[in-house]
Amino acid sequence: MTAPAPRARLAVAVAALVTSSIAAVQWYRTARPGDRSVLVVDNSEELTEALRRRADAPKEDPRPPRPVGPADPFARRNGLVREPVDESVARLFYPGLAVDWRSVHHPLVWFARRPDSRVGCRFTEHPRGEWVIRTNAHGFRDDGPVSAIRPDLRILVAGDSQVEGVCPTDETIPERIEHRLAVRRPSATVELLNGGIGSHSPYNYLGTLERYLELDPDLLLVFVFGGNDFRGMIPIRRYFHREPVPTGGRLRQRDLDAVADELLGLAYSEFGQLYYFLNHPSERDVAVRTLDRIARTIRDLAEDRGIRTLFVYVPAPLSGNPLGYREVRDELLATAGLTGSELAVTDELADAWLERAAAADLSVLDLRPVFARSEERLFWKDGHLDREGNERVASRVANAIEWLLREEEAGSGPGEVLGQVEDRVDACEPPDVRAAAKDEQDR
To answer: Under CATH, what is the fold of the domain 10-442?
Structure first.
């Protein structure tokens, strides 16, 4: 390497696809028939009963809190309550531990991928039709090992199934970002580590950072997904706070079955989240405050290790990509018993969190304008980003990384909402980069 990449320490957080009261677990076909990327596991009754028993148990405990991980002092400072989660508890919140052989318990992230695994995937909506998914010795989705020689720029990526990807490895968001950065910095080595896992939510994103601190990343990308991250935090938060599951409301999860016949992932992510917050409006502020506390804890731990943070918000399909769904939007809402104004709850949650993020001096890239402009649908039927969706996210995030690296070199500080400075982010992409990336993908 003749010119090492700047060692600006960054951390990017981008939102991801997780569970609702019915747990949706990312699933790749092995010997099972069919063509599915999502397995719906309904353990809501068991989880509800477990949370009720815990809420009813005596709360006084004279012992000091048990340690969880390296973020503990920052979590306490930010008012973030956590406890260790052993495998028996983790199985309540991540039923994939019981049904997916690739999944294993880990004390920091709670739900992880088995290292050195290999599984075939068939997904006919994708042009390739089928591919093989591999994890390396560290549990990252990657066809190769973590580099033994320290690269010039090492990027750790945390997120859910949107980051893990319903696509071949070379089409995942981390791989597309890596390609773009390599084109821009040909004299430097760039390595992205894909730690995204289906069913993860912001608590797990913090755990991902804790787990892989020893790899000394220069940049942490944590994808926050608006489709169900706000809802996805709630069950495990209730466990930590010893609160029961709220009851009541006019909207019922089973009413989504008709939507699930056509768009399974949409039904059990975006609509499932909407159902919850429409039934329990007071929980909206709880979700926003929880995400704020987790995000500040991630930023504080990262800064303590010399890492700068960037949070990237990825919108939900129906509310975020309205032109792509314009032919079916009204029908889907009617089938789910929802109105257009109720669909806006997702954006209201995002706006509330972004306002808190700005007040906390967090740097944020809001991708809603990118998705809102697209007349093309950017998600598969299962609710995961498709090839073009991955490409557009990777393009904007790579631009933001380049812009932040330049700002770091100039000595600028954090705290800018990058969605409000799109022109400067756009200016970071050389004209030939997108063409080169598109040509490589087509090949």
So the answer is: Rossmann fold (3.40.50)
